[in-house]
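Kindly review these tokens for lecture notes.

. . .
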Amino acid sequence: MTQNQDSMLCQHCYAWRCHPDDRFCGHCGDNLLQVQVSIEPVSTIYQGGKVPNRVTTVIRNVRGGLGGTHFFWRNQATEFEVPLVNLETEALNQPNEQESYATNSAELELDPAVPVEWFLMHQVSPDKAYRRAVLSCAIPQPHFALDKSECILLDHKGVLPLTLRHESGGRATVDNISVSAYEGAALNLPVLDPALFPFSLSEGEEQVLHLPLTDELLRVLQGRPLGLELVLAVHIKYLSQALDLPLKLRVPIPARPRLKLPEQVRALQGRLLRLPVPVENQGGETCRLKNVQVKIRLGPKKLCSGASHSSVQGECLPAGKTHTHLVQMELVDQEQEQPLAARRYQCDVQPVLVEEDLETPKQTIELTICAPKPYTGTVAIDFGTTATAVAYHPKGKAGQSPMPLSLSDQDHFIPTAIAYYLNEKDELQYCIGDDAIALLDNEQISDRVYLDNLKWQLDNTEPVLLPDGSDKLWEDIAVDYLKKIKEMIEEDSDIVAVVEQIAITQPSRFHPLLTRALNRAYYKAKFKPLAVSLGDKIQNDIAESWPSLITCLPLHDLKSFQDDTVGYQVLGDSTLIGQHAVLTYDVGGGSTDISLFLIAIENMATMQISELGTDGTGKEDHFFGNGFSALLFKHLWPACETWLIRQGHDPSQFPISLPWERLRPRADQIIARQNGRRCAAFILKHLQGDTGPFEQINLRLRNIGIWDDLENEELANIMNEIQEQFDRFLSQTRLTLEGLHGSAITIPSGHYNQGNGLFLNFEGFIKDFIESGSYPMFKRLQRLLHHSEVSDLKVYLLVSGRGAFFPLVGSMLWAHQERLRNEKEGKKEIQKVEQVRVDPNFAKTIVSQGACYLAKLPNVAPGITFIPRHLPSLCVQGDLDPTTGIPQLIPLCNGLPNPADSWQVAPYPLRPGYRLIHFNFYLSTHNKPVLSDEDKHLTELSQELELEPEIAEKAHIMVKAKAEDCLEIYLGKPSDMKQPDYDSWEKHLLGHYEITPGACV
């Protein structure tokens, strides 16, 4: 029997050599020679106390010249060394050349009763101090286990019998077993009978132990529903450290649900009471919670009652856990059918259990119903692609950071999703967030329409057909969603007021048409955007790249918030006076927003923050959270499709619609959405998580340096190895999909290019990621960092957003830093870039919390000036305004598009017929709907065109960056008005615009 173990090329830094003759890593000096060694009879040398007469070591050359190197055995405990071979200069220099070398067991002083570990060491030359361990060999360490790790003491007979089993390893002599506790329990712990020791066990043998159950121990257990964690430390002869075996003891204590409510809560008159009720199980057994019931009374008179959503089977509430149930009930006197007056009431809250024999506690709290009045504090909303978050700051709370609002039972945010359905009376109803997602799995409601990705559909003019036969525009669907959000904000016990103004956020490079539609949706939902004074401008919205900036501003009232989000003062503690450069990099679910800031600090009360540049992606680009998932799915699904076909299935019978894609009201699309949620969950769990394969390959990629280069030979060299790593990582995974006809199928794991199941084509994915994500994002980063005002400064790269915690994003930014560090401008190196990452717990709420603080900045810190950079809009001149007679401006996009951007499109209906048409393009600095003297004229394109009526009325202006500083301008018409794929549109080239002369050549 032979066990092989390959040595790694560079165990310390993974910086692989460039030439096969290199013997040392140029990065860390490590030994780069690759050898394969094996030991006979086995790597553990002997088992069961039997020692072989000699140990044979086989050394095989895999890569590089081994001649002149030295191999020897080293006892790590005693540091004693036994030479194995000093290779001649010409020995083992060819690949696959191998030799065998024998060592007498006596030389290694092997004793069957003494656990020992030897390492085979490799030294390249005497003048190199570094020695690497190639392969270890030892008497196997003994492994013990108890027959049980948890005991419920049903009867108390004085002792607890336990069986100690020798699971594997060499024979061991147990000198003693001591008992200790994980927790600081105030008791004298039981002691095992000393007469039992010592005893010896070989592999497979057992020893019965008797643990005394003292009265003191039993009394302690009675007061610990979750039990007591003990540790049995097994002390083995010749081993310096004991083997710890955990043992949990507990006595059966019934479930004991307890309410954890404040003494007082508030609600808004004439609205709903939204009462989150935390229920903690303080007993030792699991119980099942049906719901939570609430009764409002005035003295003995009951006025109204309500309950949380009820479950017949009950929700499992394990011992020691807390679940929060949300009770929503109308504040109406059920007898008088009148709204409850604004005053104080008693509110009785009681959980209802499936187990009727268990005690159910009741807690009475004080409920204050408040008359409606405007909220005097500041509220900010982050209407995100995948989730929505809200933050608030009460007026007069100096020194307090903005707080996130709890929008659901478990989180501070809720999914940006809405579902329309028909109730029992065939009336159209809708719900949002987690309730909308849960509606997908509700088999009792067959006719429903589920929609998400609302923000990026605001300019979609195609109406959505609803279950009652009516239709709605996407803008009005967003209004319905925001109305529910408004109700939740106003009815929250921390607000309890009418919120009339709100600070709103949007992506940095949001299309002007989307911006206008978003603002209209807020107005229709009775939200008035808060006018924020920033610099000499009044802002109605806050760019999503700005808010995370507050994590590094040296302000006293933000210190605790900064400690939680980044953990330290980003700009330093001593040299704050002066200028600092901060680049915010927020990778959200549906967009990435970047801004470069210059912070000039005169003193701790006077500072100026200037936005020097901004950029971002969204919608058609793929560099954001949903884009990463979609890209992974693109390279994951072909293997699943191949497997389905080989198994005789039609892949179309297993439809998939990913969560951020649009859903149509058909039965097959309900199944498609359920399958899409499964696929997205699979990707998040097995690929994008902190423990996924991308986290494991991060070190490899980072030590390559600038790895995100399709011509990088080092990346190509490790591609197969990483593919194998992915195959191994996914080897135990399964993906279950629902079929159209009620049948489910489970796709097993497979291997690359074998068509036998689930696998990720890593090479295809990484090339796609580099081309569509990493390279375009570097160009954006490069353009911002080349700003002259920060060329001499260290730039703090402040990374936030849920998408930023995909491990590959961190590796990409690392590569970008290396590329910037290696660039030269004349003889001067590009400035140093230092990454700062926001804590994942604030990944979603940071935008709303930061926006809330920026909105109140002029009031709380008048010495701080925030000067945003306003992107001009690229516009095309339209018809005369019927009111003023001034030419209208039709916006195309914020700023000028670059090659990484998608098509910039705006409707441009024309009169039919043959005529000369002039197209004038402007940069509008004030973003008003009509032309002014301040707008910069860019170019005029003229063409004689003959337009048929169908083409003329559906005409659009289409702009796309052909190259850096080169715009192509088309007149286009949708081939299918339901098809948003601009590449498929019919187009006629009008001409080019060169931002810099010669750019289009």
